[in-house]
Every structure is written in C-alpha cells, then in structure tokens.
Design goal:
The protein is mostly helical and about 80 residues long. It has a domain of about 50 residues. It contains 3 helices and no strands. Helix 1 crosses helix 2 and helix 2 crosses helix 3. It is elongated and about 55 Å long. About 10% of the residues are buried.
C-alpha cells in the first residue's frame, strides 16, 4: 500500500435504495436502543430489525394510531417481556 493517497477528486458513491424501506430519523431513549441491541445480539439479527418486528407485532395486535407516547410504552413493554 502507498503511504499516502490523494482523495481530493474522490466522489461519494450512490446510496442504493432498499425496496420497501424508507429512511427516517427517530430519537429513542438510550435504554430502549440498548435493550433492542441486546435482543438483536441474542437473536443474531440487527437492532433495527428487532424494532421493526416489535412495531409490526404491535400494529397487528391493535392497529390503533401510533402516538409517541404509545410507541414508547410499546417498546418498553417489549423490552421487559423477557
């Protein structure tokens, strides 16, 4: 390898979209993220996959409009279900 590389003319590659997925920004409590990361590690999946699964289950069971308070409550219940 070279000791020095010149990236001054480099361009960022295109980000490939994932079919059926929408990129969003969401703020979640640290303990919620840590809980889903622990679940994901145990299940051998990613923490976003685990959050998505929990949200799908919630919607299938209730189908109520999802408020921020309801989302937080549902995630906490999922984390403490183990």
């Amino acid at each position: 390898m070279r000791d020095e590389y010149d990236f001054s003319k480099a361009k960022r590659g295109a980000v490939l979209p994932s079919p059926g997925k929408t990129r969003i920004t969401i703020m979640l409590d640290t303990d919620v993220i840590e809980g889903f990361r622990a679940r994901a590690e145990a299940a051998g999946t990613g923490y976003q996959t685990e959050i998505n699964r929990a949200l799908r289950q919630y919607l299938a069971e209730g189908g109520e409009p999802l408020t921020l308070a309801a989302l937080r409550q549902m995630i906490r219940e999922e984390l403490h279900a183990d």
